[in-house]
Amino acid sequence: MKPAPFVYHAPADVQETLELLAELGPEAKVLAGGQSLVPVLNMRLASPAHLVDINRVAGLDEVTVEPGGVRVGALVRHAHLLSHSAARTAQPLLRQALRWVAHPVIRNRGTTVGSIVHADPAGEMPAVLALTDGHVLLRSVHGDREVPASSFFVGPMECCATADELAVEAVFGRFPPGTRTGFSEIARRHGDYALAGVALALRLGDDGSVTSARASFVSLTEVPDVLDLTDAVAGATAADLPGLAGRVEEVVGGHVDPVDDIHASADYRRHLAVVQTHRLLDRLTAGEDADGTVRLPDAPTDQEVTA
Ligand SMILES: Cc1cc2nc3c(=O)[nH]c(=O)nc-3n(C[C@H](O)[C@H](O)[C@H](O)COP(=O)(O)OP(=O)(O)OC[C@H]3O[C@@H](n4cnc5c(N)ncnc54)[C@H](O)[C@@H]3O)c2cc1C
């Protein structure tokens, strides 16, 4: 199908974009990479009267690594962020999760900020923003507001940005040194949206036992809220984890709220959430790769990621 007719706008700078969004209001949609919006338009699930294409807006394509976090501009493509060595060193979860986002062609166009604004519960990057206690900077003609991930996502496919606001950047938080992170996902085929995915951040004490463990989920909760697993596994070493499977099942199974669809039942997704969380806890407690990532057996290789 073809989209319904719309008026196309291509502002050159942020100010012009904000003025257009203020003037057009709910009749307009921002177009970034188009990897989610264009299919929605083609299927006529949305028919905005105006599209405001931000691809020519200068100054939105920067990744900046700061002590407080990794700032990702609105026009930074997934592929750029995935290959940004300083960003992935500062926050290894970026690389660990971006490897699972769609295919190279889609990552070349799709923006990380667009994926966050799109707020799909099956998107990897909203879960990473939540787990890193990140935030989104929204800008309108009335000024800026910085919205933490914990209040940015308000429902499936719905964030708190208003029609006149441009998401200028997303800032992913950094973890304290020594934090171990991992990301696990199961999809029917690599590149498909996840049936279930888990991001995990874990800290160990000097004796190698768990002092903190937090997780966020993909395709398992309506919004990417964070589950604190610390009480369930505090003090556990790698040797203790097999015995904690029941406790992990209780806590994770009680937190996630998946739905049945044509791809998988809710029960199966819940099972995948529990198994992947337990497996990540096990591997992160036992050890990590030199680059700070845990290499899970079914994670895509570097060759697959760039192919
Ligand atoms: C075949 C296929 C497979 C995919 N698989 C995955 C996957 O496995 N995981 C995953 O996470 N994603 C997946 N995607 C989606 C992809 O990651 C998109 O790029 C991303 O979700 C949206 O980014 P975009 O830049 O393309 O946004 P667009 O499609 O341009 O916009 C998406 C929405 O966000 C709004 N928007 C975008 N940027 C801004 C901004 N700066 N300010 C205000 N509003 C804004 C738009 O108005 C629109 O409502 C897939 C897409 C396709 C086509």
From TrEMBL:
Taxonomic superkingdom: Bacteria
**What taxonomic lineage is listed for the species of origin?**
Bacteria, Bacillati, Actinomycetota, Actinomycetes, Micrococcales
PROSITE patterns reported in the protein's UniProt record: FAD_PCMH (PS51387)
Q: Which InterPro entries match?
A: CO_DH_flav_C (IPR005107), CO_DH_flav_C_dom_sf (IPR036683), Diverse_Substr_Oxidored (IPR051312), FAD-bd_PCMH (IPR016166), FAD-bd_PCMH-like_sf (IPR036318), FAD-bd_PCMH_sub1 (IPR016167), FAD-bd_PCMH_sub2 (IPR016169), Mopterin_DH_FAD-bd (IPR002346)
User: Can you give the residue ranges of the FAD-binding PCMH-type domain?
Assistant: 1-177
Name the UniProt record assigns to this protein? Carbon monoxide dehydrogenase
Keywords, A to Z, come to: FAD, Flavoprotein, Oxidoreductase
Keyword check for Coiled coil: no
A Pfam family annotated for this chain is: FAD_binding_5
Q: Which organism is it from?
A: Ornithinimicrobium pekingense
